[in-house]
Every structure is written in structure tokens, then in C-alpha cells.
Write a structure and sequence with these properties.
Blueprint lengths: L3 E7 L8 E6 L3 E8 L2 E6 L13 E2 L4 E3 L6 E3 L5 E3 L8 E7 L2 E6 L26 E5 L3 H12 L5 E5 L10 H6 L12 H6 L3 E4 L4 E5 L4 E4 L4 E4 L2 E4 L3 E3 L12 E2 L4 H10 L5 E5 L3 H10 L6 E5 L7 H4 L1 H13 L2 E4 L4 E6 L7 E6 L2 E4 L2 E4 L3 E3 L17 E2 L12 E3 L4 E4 L6 E3 L3 H15 L12 E6 L1 E7 L6 E7 L4 E8 L2 E8 L4 H11 L5 H5 L15 H5 L2
Parallel strand pairs: 11-12, 11-17, 12-13, 17-29, 19-26, 20-21, 20-26, 21-22, 28-30
Antiparallel strand pairs: 1-10, 2-3, 3-4, 4-9, 5-6, 6-7, 7-8, 9-10, 14-15, 15-16, 18-27, 23-24, 24-25, 30-31, 32-33, 33-36, 34-35, 35-36
Helix pairs in contact: 1-8
Length: 550
């Protein structure tokens, strides 16, 4: 490592509560942060998708939030605060000399190509300690749980039992880009998991039961079992199929896995006809992913009056519908599918979908109608499941009535920090943050109640950002123009703003997530009066008491 100290700017250029991206040598970039009289410096880009951190949100308790997808880092150490960041950022020494801010760094670590810092693992588990964690599932929660366990010093064995045939991947890219090679999406290779994290990955494994009295997980039809001291249930969801005639035909696809992506990618070729059942995020992201492939037709069937209406509101949904219609998509809304009809030439294949007595011709069909918690095998294992198959957990994500068993991600009904009401939330960031939280708890490192604000994003012609819990909104306040897909939408429930969405207004949703976390969101009346979230101070010394009281 070759360190250099460079004067990067005048001290007067950086006021309390501000951050600033500066050059380091010819091509390097560093972000400076001033919190009261202390100046910090880090690498300049989010390790998730490379967003410029200086365009994000700084808080007085030392957090910088990515402007795009909610990843968060400590400006003091560079450590991960919130998912979906897969790696920490670099932290550099900064000090003031003769009115200039000097940064000491290895120039190579200021390059975007080197934006990720290797995690500071307090343990790799190589020596072993007689303890063991078994994780069922191989998604976002699993990846972040492993990172967190080792970061916080857990020294026992870790074993992953995953139905999938690869290490944990960035699943969000499947529906957005139809990537078919799992190696391009892996957060860590199987070799890295084994060598650096002391973790055994068992792929292609189907768990059939859990014996909680003897602490055994049974898999592969009872042929094998593994004992655990602590168990993390992280199975995620299973795509639903509508109980209609023809739903099991060969070219009727659900969508969640690499295999699903391969099927849709192969089917979505020029001149083909696609029908999407379901007008919410998975189906509509796939519509965007194939829109430029020259398909003969794309038909979308939905129960709502407009796509996304239940979550985003009528005005936003209507505008997104107009955009997709401008791209040639035909909608059949406020209706339900009657049946899927087979091909006369090959009865194993679907030829069309019947809606309101009309047959929509199809060469392939996407059934994007949600997921069910993948918990079937727990029914005979003494677990009490909710009506939808989810599992209720406490504020530490521990399964009620079970010893040393945690449930995370799509399957977990967990209490919301502001209301105490239990909800099950199918967001990538929620699963990742669940994993980080239980890893810390199991490692014995000052466990805290889970209190993260849900964040998600979607590609819909422009990037849609969303944070909070707005499904039960009773009013929507719009700033901007939804038809231009440049807006901010505030979702109100019982007189309080509970969620925010936006397009082309970064970093508003990142700021909103912090205001919701801190309990500092403006009232609906203030927002109707034109108040901007970006004008609210949560980064200076004068705001520190409010921020740190949470």
C-alpha cells in the first residue's frame, strides 16, 4: 500500500452538515463529510451499483445514504449500516492543515474500480468453536446474515442449505435485465464463502422437515440431516400459480430463479406474443426488460383499474400505464383471467388466455401474481404458521415458541417499530437488513430491535424509488408531474405520511427513509403547503440531538 497525502480543497468549502466529492490525484475521487468540527473522508461510490455518495443524504449520527437504493454506510468507518450494500466503502484519514483539508489515502483505493473494501471479519470460523448456525435458504437474507455473523465475531460453523444451484445472487437483476448466468450475479463465490467466511454451501438441497426437539434439519427426503445450535429460516417465497385451467402448461412461466430467467429469455424473441398475468412489479419489470426485442404483442392483464394502483395510487398508476401504452403494451384491467387454452397442435403448450370472453393469443405467458412463503415443510415440524404461510417473529426476528430459531425475509411477520403491528414485507432490502440484524444478534453483539424502514425500487421507463409502508394509504399528495414521470408522491394514513415514492427526484426517497426512521417526516399540511424534504436539516450539529435521540 502506497499512501499519499493531498490537499483536496479549502476548509471553507465544507460547512457543518455538508458533504463534497473531490478529486484525488488525476482520476481518483473522495467524499468529504463535515459533522460539527470533525471532517471524515471515504471512497466516493456506493458498493451496490456505484451511485455517487455525495449525491445522497448525510445524517448527524454519521450515516451516508445512497441516493438510489437505500444502502447506507458509516462515514466514520466506511462500514455497512444498511443493505443492499454488499461491501463496505474505504475510510481515509482527513485533517486540516493551514486552512486546507488534507486526505491521506492509497490512490488506488480512490478509484471507482476499487470502490469496495474487504469486510473486517472478527472471525472466519476456520478454527471452529463447537457452535453451529444452519441457514435454510440462499437469498439476500442469507448472504447478509453470513457477513454480519463473521463481522460481529461469530466463530462457529455456518452451513447454508439452498434449493438453488448457486451461491446467493442479486436476484433483483433477474426481472430487470433477464440475466441468465448466475456467476454474473453472485455476491460471493462458493470458494470465497468457504475460505474467507468458513461457510459450507450445500446447493440443490430440499429441506423436508425440522426436528426442533433434537435440533436437526432433515433434507433430501430424509436421507440426510444436520444438527444446529441456532437455525435461521430464510426460504423466501414460492411464485403463485392461479388455480385456473391451463396454468400448468409448459410455456406458462412464473418468475423468481435463474432457471425462470432462462426460460423467459429464450421465449421472448422477435415476433413472439407475450401475455403477462398480473400488473404489478415482477410482471411489469419483465415487460420493460423485453420491450426492445421486437415482440409481436405484449398484453398485460390486471385486476386493478391501473397498474400499481393499490400501492402507488391512481394518479401514478395511470401515468405509468400511459408510458407503457406508448411503448406498445396493451392493458386489460379491472378484470380476471378465465382460463388458459392449450394449443391445438401441441396440447402441452398454451396458445392463449381468455379474458372477458376474448382470447388473447400467446406464444408464452408470464404469471406474475405474487409469491407465497416457502414454508410448507414446517407445517409438520411443530411451527405455527399464519394464514398466508408466514411465520410470526418478535422484535429480534426470533420465532415465537421456538428455541434459537429465527425467521427472516419474505416469510417473516415482524413488528413495525413505529406501530408494533406485525407485517410481512417482500422487499429485497428488508430481507438483507433482516439478515444483518440476526447475524449481529446471534453473534451476541448488542442486539437491537429491528427498526429499518422498507425501501425498494423498480425500472419503469424511469427509475421508481419507494420507502415506507403505504399500502393502507387514504390520501396521496403529489409534487411534480406524473405524466412526465418526474414526481414525488406522499402516501398518507390517518393524518401521517407513511410512505414516499418518486421518479427523477433523487435523493428524495433516501431523505424520506431517514426522516421516517427519525420520526421527523413533515405533516401532510406542510407538504401540501409546498415544504420540501430536502430542506429539512438532519445533518448539522443543531440537528444532532433530534437525530441521536432515536
Amino acid at each position: 500500500m502506497s499512501l499519499k497525502t493531498i490537499a483536496v480543497c479549502d476548509e471553507s468549502e465544507l460547512q457543518d452538515g455538508q458533504m463534497k466529492q473531490v478529486d484525488f490525484e488525476e482520476v481518483g475521487k473522495v467524499v468529504l463529510y463535515r459533522l460539527n468540527d470533525t471532517i471524515h473522508a471515504t471512497s466516493a461510490f456506493c458498493t451496490h451499483y456505484g451511485a455517487p455518495l455525495a449525491k445522497g443524504v448525510l445524517t448527524a449520527d454519521g450515516r451516508v445514504v445512497c441516493p438510489w437504493h437505500g444502502a447506507c454506510f458509516s462515514v466514520c468507518t466506511g462500514d455497512i449500516e444498511d443493505a443492499p450494500a454488499p461491501a463496505a466503502i474505504h475510510s481515509f484519514k482527513a485533517r486540516v492543515v493551514d486552512g486546507k483539508i488534507n486526505v491521506t489515502a492509497d490512490p488506488s483505493l480512490t478509484l471507482k474500480s476499487n470502490m469496495s473494501r474487504s469486510p473486517k471479519l472478527l472471525s472466519t470460523g476456520v478454527a471452529g468453536s463447537g457452535k453451529s448456525v444452519v441457514i435454510i435458504g440462499g437469498g439476500s437474507a442469507t448472504f447478509h446474515a453470513i457477513e454480519s455473523l463473521r463481522e460481529h465475531g461469530y466463530s462457529g460453523n455456518i452451513t447454508i442449505l439452498s434449493q438453488e444451484k448457486h451461491p446467493p445472487i442479486d436476484r433483483t437483476k433477474l426481472s430487470k435485465a433477464l440475466i441468465t448466468d448466475s456467476s454474473k450475479l453472485e455476491w460471493r463465490t462458493a470458494a470465497d464463502l468457504k475460505i474467507k467466511y468458513g461457510t459450507t454451501l450445500r446447493t440443490g438441497v430440499t429441506v423436508t422437515s425440522v426436528d426442533t426437539s433434537s435440533k436437526l434439519v432433515v433434507f433430501d427426503g430424509g436421507k440426510e440431516s444436520i444438527s444446529y445450535e441456532t437455525l435461521i429460516l430464510a426460504m423466501g417465497g414460492t411464485p403463485r400459480r392461479l388455480p385456473i385451467s391451463g396454468s400448468d402448461l409448459r410455456n406458462v412461466y412464473t418468475f423468481r430463479s435463474i432457471e425462470d430467467s432462462k426460460c423467459v429469455d429464450a421465449a421472448a424473441q422477435e415476433g413472439k406474443r407475450m401475455v403477462v398475468i398480473g400488473s404489478s412489479f415482477i410482471g411489469m419489470e419483465l415487460v420493460v426488460a423485453v420491450a426492445k426485442r421486437g415482440l409481436a404483442s405484449i398484453d398485460v392483464i390486471g385486476m386493478e383499474e391501473h397498474p400499481f394502483q393499490n400501492l402507488l395510487g391512481k394518479e401514478v398508476g395511470q401515468s405509468l400505464q400511459k408510458y407503457h401504452e406508448s411503448q406498445g403494451v396493451k392493458f386489460h384491467l379491472g378484470t380476471q383471467v378465465e382460463k388458459i387454452i392449450p394449443s391445438e397442435s401441441d396440447p402441452s403448450l398454451a396458445a392463449g388466455v381468455v379474458v372477458n370472453g376474448q382470447t388473447l393469443p400467446a406464444d408464452f405467458i408470464i404469471m406474475g401474481v405474487g409469491v407465497a412463503p416457502a414454508t410448507e415443510f414446517l407445517k409438520q415440524s411443530g411451527f405455527q404458521l399464519e394464514k398466508d404461510g408466514g411465520i410470526k417473529v418478535d422484535q429480534y426476528l426470533k420465532v415465537q415458541g421456538q428455541e434459537n430459531v429465527y425467521a427472516v425475509g419474505d416469510i417473516a411477520w415482524y413488528p413495525q417499530h413505529n406501530t408494533g403491528e406485525s407485517r410481512r414485507i417482500e422487499h429485497w432490502n428488508v430481507a438483507g437488513n433482516h439478515g444483518r440484524a440476526v447475524g449481529k444478534t446471534i453473534a451476541g453483539s448488542n442486539p437491537q430491535p429491528f427498526a429499518k424502514v422498507p425501501v425498494f425500487w423498480s425500472a419503469q421507463g424511469q427509475q421508481l424509488r419507494y420507502c415506507g409502508l403505504g399500502a393502507d394509504y387514504d390520501d396521496v399528495i403529489i409534487h411534480g408531474n406524473t405524466d412526465e414521470m418526474k414526481f414525488i408522491a406522499y402516501y398518507v394514513h390517518r393524518g401521517e405520511v407513511v410512505a414516499v415514492s418518486s421518479m427523477q427526484n433523487d435523493p428524495v426517497v433516501s431523505k424520506a427513509s431517514e426522516l421516517l426512521r427519525l420520526g421527523l417526516m413533515p405533516s401532510p399540511a406542510e407538504l401540501k403547503g409546498g415544504k420540501s424534504l430536502l430542506s429539512i436539516d438532519i445533518s448539522t450539529a443543531s440537528a444532532k440531538r433530534q437525530v441521536e435521540s432515536v
